[in-house]
Q: What sequence folds into this?
């Protein structure tokens, strides 16, 4: 963290001095060895006052880091409240309460499967679920409302079945392709996901390194735990990165971000259009609640805890007024290709073509925004026939994200006409559980699966994948079955296989 | 309760005196400090004689209150059986038997989650299920036969998926609308539900206050625990209420009720047309049975306990002969808009338009009447295209109720053409678990969800919602899957994720 | 039992004498106080020799009774092997081994719910499952192969949903109808089911009495435990019965049966056409196996236990050569209306009309014959439109059976064009658990449901039921869902409601 | 095993001598009494070095046998590394560690149900799962990726329902047929499956004997544990066998195999076309992993254990370049009928006809190759109408395999136009659990079911089976249901049957 605005003072503050300011009336906190007076900031804190007051007069660095980009305090807290360095030797070490839940987690970490036992992307998730901190897990794994879209995203791929060709020479299989002109090893990119340090203290730079190793593109998130420059700095050689952009209400800030990204070499600008407001994710909210609210008593309506999980805490700057009218302005401030991330119906894809953007990502934000939004793969199957009918299929690059877990999922998307797919959570889980080796193995597994399945479907190269190789007739079916007949089911005596003999001893 | 017919006598009855009349031959009961001779009434009691005999010679007020509107005795028991006041000091206090089930319930109440932990309408139901009295829970939560329609009601919304618009300016979102000319904050109303005091001793006035706070309309139920006037009196300012009407076999009574409602300012008359007889709800019947019947032995057919739950006990007055022929009469006795509640096929919607009524509620009575009746939302999708085809869509206001739990459900109904939706049970559960603050929070959660989801679907106001924003192709599918292949399933060895290492100590 | 062929001898056989013949070489058994030499009969016994040898030299009456019609020995065992009366005082009382399973069953019988706790037909099945003997339960409850058709039979009704009419005058509801000219109270009949004494020692006469009380028709089964005449004798007044017929390879026997039935007043002849061979029912076979085979060791192929459950044991006489060519012969030997029971496709219904029979039962034999045969209700929906198209709908009476459990099921069948429905197992279960009062209550429950649901669908009489009142679009869909994605499901962290507070004491 | 290349030396090697070579630097192993120096071979071993090193300096015969055809060492290890005989008396007997898992398995074997308790093919699988070695079970039972195609294979049959004919004379039922001109008792053949000795030390000769007994054809697998000649030698009389062929990159080897097979009398050549590379089967890989890798620690990416289960270990010779261009060559080297095994779309069936082959097997390799490949039965329903339309249905014999478990499955395939079906795993499981008697009973059960179900569907002979007897309208539907609504489900209080009385004692 770069505290450019605070000179080192002659006499450091003492822990005792800071410790006196431990109330709503006067609230100081220590972040990375420096004290800040946040009393006036309390009501404005997007994450609510409660979480700050928990650390009033104390060192809040551990809690602060994963949620806040390193330059947050310099940007948002008036310099007059920057109180200067603290003599950390005088700060009482918080003797952490014995947290039985945390102890159990540490035990689970000891029993963690070794990396080689992960054979597919779901395995990383299964491990991460057991070894991640509960709040971090809740932030990554949660979706909107009933999480139905989130689960549909992967489930939708299961409605697509293959029509493989046999007796095709597949000795040499090449599944490299290009995305916005960049040659990549395999048709996926690492899509933008927020708050990487929740899962791993190093944050998203791990994904940068993994992407380099496997020659795929990383999309840098606006809400990364690492700063944008840290992530660009972590890239090596001619490694290509894109920028994911939440558009700020203050367009000047947005302009600065875009121009800076272009200057630093980003090769694509992905404007998020499915998040005028960040979603309600109840699993995240519940987890947050119990973190700060366990001693809170219901008081009948007033003074209610307003914390709504990590998502809401970090996103109040996003502009809900963003509209088609803003596109020409973006085109005026950058030469980067512009893509709209989060398009969800064919009408808007056509409008995007008319607006002259270079691509769209058919996405529902990982199921984290509007529940009952359709999966990207389903929208893709709606979009492509219309584009082909109108001769527009080459006017734009179409990507999808959401629910991709297997190379067969990637192949299905490409058969239907996508240029590539974005993958997010699986790499977060791999990173959270195993760090860079986890991300490396996750990507390698996808490559192994890809080679195998290209062969099995009878395609030696990406261009061989075509719509006749998939049967998508049920893709747009959203059925629930008639509710269970519980009484009948309760009375039914299910068939069972042959019974073992009763042991002789008994 | 207003005992207008009984003057206070000089000498009050003693508890001892009342206590002698504790048999089928002579049965007195005390209700709110007054004694009544109900011996002759026993065979006529809609709820059966058993439940009265349980309190013969005793104070029955607690059991009586939630089931009976306060003016019941005055209306239905001949004045000669009103025996006058009892000196309650002489009435032996029933030392309630230790009821282990009730004790467990009291423990659960102590551990009740605080209100802020409820993040959606299902949460109130989950809490209410644990803290309500079993019989009350059974009455509210039960449905007809196998409760398949009851569950289908919410499930049907899951067959509708969104086609959101992106890049729409949704900075300002306004989801207020009008219903029968009344401006409301959000397109739902509190629909009529019976016996509110089962869940909360204050009864439906809590809903009146919640509706006021959030500026939505309350529909007053015929079978409220509170009297009609109590509910109207509880309304404040220009708060709007509607009347739900079960039509009495005695039309004079019905006429009095309607005229009185109009006089007191009700702005809509909703005639229930899906309940010529109130439904068999087995969960309710089972709960009732164990309440009064636990010592009963099977006797082979005669002298059988005939109690059939709360629903049947309170509804014997409803006229099963009500028909289209009666509509003109209603139009002749009131100027209130008339709506038919419980219409279930497009043919009847058209007939309703021809009959000149102002609206219909597409409803199956919360799944409490005919099992395998279709959901209101499904019927809506059948109705609207036909009306539009015939140019009738503006001739009538169409509402639906049943299964609405999320703002996305409301939005789906409005996209399809509904003017608004009725919500019943969720507010009962919120009220039963947390009283008015619960109802308040439940409504606020819907508003929060509504604002979020209007933005996410790309609609700044109610008029922006249209049928292209939903995919309803599977809405009318009612499938069951082929019965489970239990032998194969039993032999299949499911995939599991990586195993943990065995702990070193073991 | 009528031992017409054995005079009472002067000196009765002693138990000791009989007991000597306890081997395959010489095998005597006692049935109802008389001894029989079955040594030569052993290899011919349809149920296998093993089960007889278990009782060699002993009294076998208890085991014998439910499986064998009373006149079996007289009919099938040569008179020379009828050894005469036994002095039962000299027969050693079998001190039954303590059978822990039987003891548990006796305990369950003590805790049996009282009859009034049964609120629907499934409830009887739930009780019967707990209190019936395992082998009897297995015989009644089992179906063919994977029992998929058996379960589909009820499940199919769940694919049909109602389109009720409202505002119909349903004060008076009359659901009586006629079947083959006989007026009945409600459109169901008691269909033929075998071996009633397995469930209740009195056997099918209980069903006769129940049918009388509720004025419905009983179909007398060929394989009843009671003899045909016992069942006809049990009928009272002008009670109507039909005969279900398995056609014997020996047509003379068949002719005698038919002529006798007509003479005794049967009003309909239902020839079973879906059972050229009785089905393999593995649950039944498994149950039978453990009954007689628990000490059997695998011997590699020879001397294998051939018992295949009760069904196979009793049906070897059925003629698999029965064909359309035989129909004129039946028409020549009886004036009873002839109906074909077990028709399963529209082509065969048309052929039946051409053959001049009076009706068909669309049935798959309760799911006990061909697994993956379609349900009767599904076949009905296939048949009626074709008949109507050809003007044949009045040429024949169409019945269905299989899976009927609710009055709504009956109503669905009648809406689609059935004249009535057969109900079998539910009455067996009611009879097995509660005897005649059980059957009585089961029928009464159906009447109660029928009255309620006729009102709720808006039909005052049977003729009001028409095809527009049901939506059957999914009735013929037989889908399985894509196999579960177990890895993803294992990694998914399901949403849960609010957590309780941790109790203060802990 | 025939060690033709090693003369018996005068002085045998001692166990002590061999034992010294127990490291990566010098690695000797003993196989069937002879020592081999495999040091240089370690990096080339398809199954990885680890598994060999586990036995370095020791006797590896038990592990070696089921995976390697008997002539492997002679073929693949240079003669100079054949070290000659070992004096086995001097080889230290491995005192096998107490393996608690193996002990439990031995206990389960003791309690194994007797053969007569197996009533259907699934029963053998249920037993085999309990009594087989874990790694063997994993190899047989595993499928590709999420095993969704593997499970779909059987599940697909459940989407086909029957339309049986009644009143057909089925006294005599003949379900014999011909396959490639060979008369067989029943329309199935034993399809090729690898590594039979994993399940039973005798290997695939057991299947040869079972096939003989029931007069069905056995397809000899390339990857059998027994050698090809052993299997041909085991055939008796005029027993017919076919050859399944994985095509070797070295066509000379392939040519030798084909010519040898023809010379030995094989009557059909089935070229596998769905396996250019053998599939990733994670269950198998996981099982393998824990077998050799339990002490392995994660090392961050390098020196990773590469073992990928038995499938990958044995298949590196298969030629992924095999294509349509190779077909004429096969036709030039053999007069056997040629069939393509693994065709998966109608376009390729037509191409096969054009290529002049005699048949195709519509198959997805038992779900072991490409997950989301469609079932053979589904592809059959796609293929036949097109062939009939073009008059091609008699140009070729069409077989299917995958998921056949019941005679009804066979009947469904034949109704749709298949000449016969292949059955693989069920016989492996029967053989693994019960040896030849198991295979015998499994085949007999299919015959019993076949006779029964031919009767019940109304077909006296194979030719009577036609497409009108099945309803396949849902066969190509691949749906998943909308993800579960867990919150609602959690709050729902399911209906339950009547409760038992509380026991008097309590």
A:
């Amino acid at each position: 963290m770069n505290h450019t605005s605070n000179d080192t003072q002659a006499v450091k503050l003492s822990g005792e001095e800071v410790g006196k300011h431990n109330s709503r009336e006067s609230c100081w906190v220590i972040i990375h060895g420096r004290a800040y007076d946040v009393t006036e900031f309390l009501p404005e804190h997007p994450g609510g006052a409660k979480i700050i007051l928990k650390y009033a007069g104390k060192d809040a660095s551990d809690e602060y880091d994963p949620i806040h980009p390193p330059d947050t305090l310099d940007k948002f807290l008036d310099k007059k409240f920057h109180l200067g360095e603290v003599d950390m030797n005088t700060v009482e070490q918080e003797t952490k309460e014995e947290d039985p839940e945390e102890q159990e987690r540490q035990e689970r970490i000891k029993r963690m499967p070794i990396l080689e036992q992960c054979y597919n992307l779901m395995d990383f998730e299964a491990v991460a679920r057991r070894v991640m901190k509960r709040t971090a897990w809740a932030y990554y794994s949660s979706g909107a409302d009933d999480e139905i879209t989130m689960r549909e995203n992967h489930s939708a791929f299961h409605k697509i079945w293959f029509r493989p060709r046999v007796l095709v020479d597949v000795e040499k299989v090449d599944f490299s392709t290009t995305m916005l002109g960049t040659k990549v090893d395999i048709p996926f990119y690492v899509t933008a996901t927020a708050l990487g340090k929740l899962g791993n203290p190093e944050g998203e730079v791990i994904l940068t390194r993994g992407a380099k190793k496997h020659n795929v593109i990383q999309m840098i998130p606006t809400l990364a735990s690492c700063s944008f420059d840290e992530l660009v700095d972590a890239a090596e050689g001619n490694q290509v990165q894109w920028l994911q952009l939440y558009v700020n209400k203050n367009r000047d800030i947005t302009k600065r971000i875009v121009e800076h990204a272009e200057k630093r070499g980003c090769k694509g600008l992905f404007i998020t259009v499915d998040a005028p407001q960040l979603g309600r994710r109840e699993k995240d909210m519940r987890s947050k609640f119990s973190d700060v609210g366990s001693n809170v008593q219901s008081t009948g309506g007033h003074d209610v805890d307003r914390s709504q999980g990590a998502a809401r805490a970090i996103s109040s700057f996003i502009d809900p007024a963003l509209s088609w009218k803003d596109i020409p302005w973006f085109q005026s401030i950058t030469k980067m290709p512009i893509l709209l991330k989060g398009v969800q119906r064919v009408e808007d894809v056509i409008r995007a073509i008319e607006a002259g953007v270079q691509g769209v990502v058919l996405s529902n934000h990982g199921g984290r925004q509007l529940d009952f939004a359709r999966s990207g793969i389903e929208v893709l199957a709606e979009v492509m026939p219309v584009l082909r009918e109108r001769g527009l299929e080459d006017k734009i690059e179409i990507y999808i994200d959401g629910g991709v877990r297997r190379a067969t999922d990637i192949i299905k998307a490409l058969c239907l006409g996508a240029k590539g797919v974005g993958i997010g959570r699986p790499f977060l889980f791999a990173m959270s559980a195993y760090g860079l080796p986890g991300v490396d193995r996750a990507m390698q597994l996808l490559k192994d699966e890809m080679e195998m399945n290209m062969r099995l479907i009878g395609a030696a190269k990406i261009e061989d994948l075509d719509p006749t190789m998939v049967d998508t007739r049920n893709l747009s079916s959203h059925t629930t079955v008639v509710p269970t007949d519980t009484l009948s089911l309760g009375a039914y005596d299910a068939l069972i296989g042959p019974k073992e003999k009763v042991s002789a001893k008994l």
Q: What stands out?
A: Residues 134-287+313-471 of chain D form a domain with the TIM Barrel fold (CATH 3.20.20.70). Chain D touches chain A through 74 residues (CB under 8 Å). The first strand of chain D starts at residue 28 and ends at 31.
